[in-house]
């Protein structure tokens, strides 16, 4: 699974994993597998992140979006383009896969073994790779069951059971929010892996028992040298030659079933290597891929390649399993270690109680902060590594300042939370050279994400609709004074929402006011809610005596009443009422006490 | 002749007691529906009370335009717009202003009526709850029924005479009657002679 289906945000951008940052975006990208174009993956955006290279299709982003995990990439090649051929960046998967790939042809056993006779055994013989080499990553469909609420959660796609340790960040349960024990997730992952591996495999007896030539893929070069020897199946872990009928190694108990997958893959090889301008099917289904090319039809390849090289050198994915920055313990010199730190502290805390303890805790906190800040600013490198802590501290200070000033409006809170989302923001230097339209479309997606983020709930707080100017102000404050957006760019980006099929829309009122609202809040829905409200007035006797038959006609409502009822501003209520009137749903009555809107009984004459 | 001659009360349709009915709607589809409702209401009201013409501004006080119970009235400008619409081709030419109309401030198009909206509404207009052609047919049918073909009748006899007391056209304004007879003459079914009040007509 070199290419992996990815999750997208509401704005149809790749959902970034924890700690993942966006490095570069480029549009007009096509994908190749080997020499051949992959159908449906020919026009999209490339998103380079610190962990992945993603392709998001323009037409059907939910269906055709894939990513290459950089940690599975062996090397990257750059092709500058020639005449009509676009520049390309080629990703080669790690050797283990390519080795098995080269074994796939009918005669491939001989070829591969003569070409590099020692490589495959060396790989498989290495215990470090024994667990992860056939499928070093979990299937995206792996799930773990929460032990608290038994909700079935997906295992994060970057979770690797072979390297996971107590410091690996685990997402909490989606339903109850309780973090699972690591062991639990690892177990679930492994079991799903074995399920997946054994699924396509028939029961043991069906495994080919023929001449040893067929069996060469078992990577034993001994078999080659003596083709008529008793067929054996070499354990990848302990190199013990097992009887082919066995499912697991006689010596060490390693599952041998997984190895059979390479036999299946032989069938796939003809299809892959059959000549043709493009492949018959998307390569997501089969695991073995020679190489994936990103074809840059609209430039940007140089920066992409530069940043990609940088990311490959930085290897940020290694940080996932790295322990957090050590914190000084109670006794200087010893370091508390991850989960044990909490228990140690609580033991100590029990010794002192009351105000003294509180003061002491405060003191400790300040000391830690001091240390973190001190370390961070020692040099730039250190600042980069401890960026997360510094941001957390900065936010904490910001919120404290707000509390002391006593002006904690919601917008202020919003701004102070901003730093945590910096990774999501597209800046002009992240994008390919000179493509202003790409900048706008990315900005448009940024905005949509910003608006639809449930954690912030900007639209909800504003009653589901807010003016574009307000949004512009909040968004620029949210960017923290960096890379501010010009009003022109902002309006253009907002106008792209419709084109990009994003979940928010720009609405232009008759007065010319531009407002932002969710796509799901259509005029039809607004009208329906207005109608049901007016309809309900037929059964509620009006407070004052009225001269008309209220059971038949209901009651006229003013914009003021509508605004109160729906929680809109009066301006919005007026616009919505007039919109409904224009659609012929409502009609107006201009009377002494102002403008009232009624259900349109003029057209739908009551009998 | 805006006096009511029918003792039976007119039964107003339900939308006459719907408050927004008395505000001319800005939305075109709603407005079209409203105008045709008003037109139908005015025609049936005039037919009920045998009103051949409406004289303004006194007609504005009719229960037709002013629903006392509801406390709503159709403003003069809106009445003008409604009547103008009724006089237009769209409204079927059911209203025609006497004395040329236009100089009295109401044209035949809805737009013109709106522009002049707030000015005082004066003058008299025909309300053709039957068109002149339809009246001609009714008169001819009466002549046929009563066997008066070839007989010379004065206009007074037709309009006010005892012989027509039960007929629909009884009490018809002389001017309108002359128009109706003009239609009959044009069809070649009658001949008008004489002048002034002594105008006579002979059907054949």
TrEMBL record, chain A:
Compositional bias per record (Polar residues), positions renumbered to this chain: 106-117
SUPFAM superfamilies named in the record: PH domain-like (SSF50729), Ran binding protein zinc finger-like (SSF90209), Winged helix' DNA-binding domain (SSF46785)
Subcellular location: Cytoplasm; Endosome
Domain GLUE N-terminal: 6-324
Record has Transport as a keyword: yes
Alphabetical list of PROSITE patterns matching this protein: GLUE
Keyword Metal-binding: no
Stretches for region Disordered: 106-133
GO cellular component, one term: late endosome membrane
GO MF annotation: an example: ubiquitin binding
Family: Belongs to the VPS36 family.
SUBUNIT field: Component of the endosomal sorting complex required for transport II (ESCRT-II).
UniProt protein name: Vacuolar protein-sorting-associated protein 36
Organism: Patellaria atrata CBS 101060
TrEMBL record, chain B:
Keyword Iron-sulfur recorded: no
Family matches, as Gene3D superfamilies: Winged helix' DNA-binding domain. Chain C. Domain 1, Winged helix-like DNA-binding domain superfamily/Winged helix DNA-binding domain
One GO MF term: structural molecule activity
GO biological process, one term: macroautophagy
InterPro entries given in the database record: ESCRT-II_cplx_Vps25-sub (IPR008570), ESCRT-II_cplx_Vps25-sub_N (IPR014041), WH-like_DNA-bd_sf (IPR036388), WH_DNA-bd_sf (IPR036390)
Location within or outside the cell: Cytoplasm
Superkingdom: Eukaryota
Similarity field: Belongs to the VPS25 family.
Record's protein name: Vacuolar protein-sorting-associated protein 25
Keywords: Cytoplasm, Protein transport, Transport
Primary subcellular site in the record, as a coarse category: cytoplasm
GO cellular component term of the entry, any: ESCRT II complex
Native organism taxonomy: Eukaryota, Fungi, Dikarya, Ascomycota, Pezizomycotina
